[in-house]
Structures are given as structure tokens and as C-alpha cells.
Write a structure and sequence with these properties.
single chain, alpha+beta, 4-stranded antiparallel sheet, 24 strands, disordered N terminus
Length: 375
């Protein structure tokens, strides 16, 4: 290297930053242009300190695209329960429905929901629920508990409330049992034995249906009665309604109680007037096995292989859908009507147009479709 005259550009420091910059270059952290004057002094084109010096680099100063990429690696529940409370900027990003739609589509390529989402659909909650369920089922995080000793005969009805913390079971032994699932612990065998917190000889016939509304539990039995119980008052019986035939299904809402019977009829009661009888529907030729009710329709499934849609406002039958097998179970949610039949098929029907959308073969028969009530 001797004899070589290597002249490297002098390094100067921008007066606004502590970073060294070459002569004639722009400062790495601000827009200051470094130049050398005739007298040899250094001139900086911008005198005020740049934003990077006033505000140190932090997470909330990153570009939106980078933040969203970082957020995509975090759990959905952490994002909307914790991160959204950090600042208004994070709250704005976390509450962007478009971003949640993209996240669901990337994680779960198949269309979700299967039909168009209804107005007010909570995309961030749906994403969190899907991710939680996927993690539980794919990573072996599910726990199985065998709750034995509660009944001595077949269990034909179960119902979950309080986000699956409480379970009600109805059996052919005529007993209604209340189970506390929140305290189950695989490491503590006593928690399994102590899970049954209440056992009531509720009916004189098989208990075939359980539904609820708030703290009121409704049971239907082959003894032709429907009974109401107050879960907030140690399961005190509050009302008993006598029908003409075995009760196979019930739905209880704040403004209506519907009861499907073996004699193919549906009885309607009004809770606001002391459960007075207001109508009797005859839309089927065989026993009514299942039903779903909302503010517009009463939808029933029967052994006659038909789904009947009754318009509550018009007071008449609106539509009938015929399947290839008896309709054994039904669930109405998000304008999606799911129906399970006796051949193991799961049918999806658009609850706005009532046109069948798809059929999937799942089991030898589908007996129960369940929605877990949060309250």
C-alpha cells in the first residue's frame, strides 16, 4: 500500500444529528444536505432538528403496512383485548374490518362465513373464535372428561349456557342434572366427581328437549309437559304447561315459547302474558323433531322429511323445503340455516331466500346441532 495516495472523502457530522455523513450527501436521519464552503467550514441546509431527533423511533411511528404485518403474528384475542387499548392509533388499526377479513382469508382459505355476512357482523370476534377453535383441535389442546354417575339411563338432551361453563342434561331416567364445567381439572379427579351440582327429578317421562332464555331453563318431556326452571334461584320450578302429546323440541325467547310435539303440531305461548297460549300450528304430517325461531320466522323440521318456514308477521306458512330424509336437528345463525338429517347429511340453507346451498355427508345421522349461549 506504500506509495499510494488514497484520499477518502472526509466524514462530517450533521449539526442536527449525531450521525456521521459524507460531504455532499444527505444526512441519514433527516433531510439536511451536508456541503463544504469556500473557507472549509461545513454547511447544513436545514438548521432545525429533524423529527427523528424530536421523537425517538417507537412502534407507533412505524408505517401502517409494517405494523399490520407485525400484528398478523399476534393472537387475535390479544389484539382486540389488549393492544387496541394502548393508543388510539392501534385501536383504529385493530378495528378495521377489512384487515380482519384479509386475515381470515389468509389463515382459512375457504369462504367464511359460507354465505354473505349479515349487517353488524363482528369480524374480529369471528377471527378470534376461529383461531382459538383451530388451535384447540389441531394442537391437541382439547381435554376429554367422562362425567359418569349423573344418570343411569340414556341422555337425550343437553344444553350449554354461560359460554359452556354450565351444562344441563336430560335423561330417560326423568332427571335433569346441572353440571359445573368451569372447575373441571384433569389433574384433580375430585373435580369430575363433583361436577354435578344439582339433580332434579323433573318429569314423569323421558326428557327430550332443553332450551333457555337468560336464567330461565325450559324442559320438554314425553310426559306431555313443558316446565320452566329459574337457574338463578337454585333451579326452582316456576311453571308447568300441559300439552296433548309428547314434547320433542322447544325454543324459548323473550317474546315467544314454541313447543314441537309428537302429534305433528307446534304450540306457541307468549311469555309476556304469563305464557298464555296464542296459536297452534299444523305444518307437518308427522312428529316435529326440531325447530329454530327468530324475530321473523318459526322454522320446524319433521319426520315427514320437510322443513316448514312459518312467517310470524303474516301468520301463515311461507315456504316448505323437502329433504331426502327426516330432519333431526336444526340451527339458525347469521342468516345460515343448518339442518341435520337421518342419513348423516348436513344441509346449509340460505335463511334469507330459503334456497339450499350445499350438502355435506358427516355421520350416519345428525341428532344434535348446538349453539353455545354466552348467557
Amino acid at each position: 500500500m506504500e506509495g499510494l495516495d488514497l484520499k477518502l472523502p472526509n466524514l462530517y457530522k450533521c449539526r442536527n444529528t449525531s450521525d456521521e455523513s459524507r460531504e455532499g450527501n444527505t444526512c441519514l436521519h433527516c433531510s439536511c444536505f451536508i456541503s463544504k464552503t469556500a473557507d472549509g467550514s461545513i454547511e447544513v441546509s436545514k438548521k432545525d432538528c429533524c423529527d427523528h431527533q424530536q421523537k425517538p423511533l417507537s412502534l407507533d411511528t412505524l408505517p401502517t403496512e409494517i405494523l399490520q404485518k407485525v400484528f398478523s403474528y399476534l393472537e387475535a384475542k390479544f389484539l382486540y383485548c389488549t393492544l387496541s387499548l394502548v393508543c388510539r392509533f392501534f385501536n383504529h388499526l385493530v378495528n378495521d374490518d377489512t384487515w380482519w377479513k384479509i386475515r381470515i382469508a389468509r389463515c382459512f382459505p375457504k369462504k367464511y362465513p359460507p354465505l354473505s355476512a349479515p349487517d353488524g357482523f363482528d369480524w374480529k370476534m369471528a377471527c378470534a373464535t376461529r383461531e382459538d377453535q383451530h388451535r384447540l383441535w389441531t394442537q391437541g389442546l382439547m381435554q376429554c372428561f367422562n362425567l359418569t354417575g349423573g344418570h343411569y339411563s340414556s341422555i337425550d338432551a343437553i344444553h350449554l349456557i354461560n359460554n359452556a361453563a354450565i351444562c344441563f342434561s336430560g335423561s330417560r331416567d326423568r332427571y335433569l342434572n346441572v353440571w359445573n364445567l368451569a372447575n373441571l381439572n384433569a389433574a384433580n379427579p375430585d373435580s369430575v366427581r363433583e361436577a354435578c351440582v344439582k339433580s332434579i327429578q323433573a318429569h314423569k317421562g323421558w326428557i327430550w328437549s332443553i332450551s333457555s332464555c337468560n336464567s330461565t331453563i325450559c324442559t320438554g318431556s314425553w310426559d306431555t309437559t313443558v316446565k320452566l326452571w329459574d337457574a338463578g334461584k337454585d333451579m326452582t320450578e316456576t311453571l308447568s304447561l300441559k300439552g296433548k302429546s309428547a314434547v320433542l323440541c322447544t325454543v324459548l325467547l323473550p317474546d315467544i315459547l314454541t313447543v314441537g310435539s309428537f302429534d305433528s303440531s307446534v304450540a306457541i305461548y307468549d311469555p309476556r302474558t304469563g305464557y298464555s297460549s296464542i296459536a297452534q300450528l299444523h305444518c307437518h304430517s308427522k312428529p316435529v323433531l326440531c325447530m329454530a325461531v327468530d324475530d321473523k320466522y318459526i322454522i320446524t323440521g319433521s319426520e315427514d322429511k320437510k322443513i316448514a318456514i312459518y312467517d310470524r308477521a303474516a301468520g301463515k306458512l311461507f315456504e316448505t323445503i323437502e329433504l331426502q330424509s327426516l330432519v333431526k336437528s336444526m340451527l339458525l345463525k347469521w342468516n345460515h340455516l343448518w339442518a341435520g338429517d337421518g342419513k348423516g347429511n348436513l344441509h346449509l340453507i340460505n335463511a334469507q331466500s330459503f334456497k339450499p346451498v350445499s350438502v355435506r355427508i358427516l355421520h350416519t345421522h345428525v341428532r344434535i346441532l348446538m349453539y353455545i349461549h354466552e348467557k
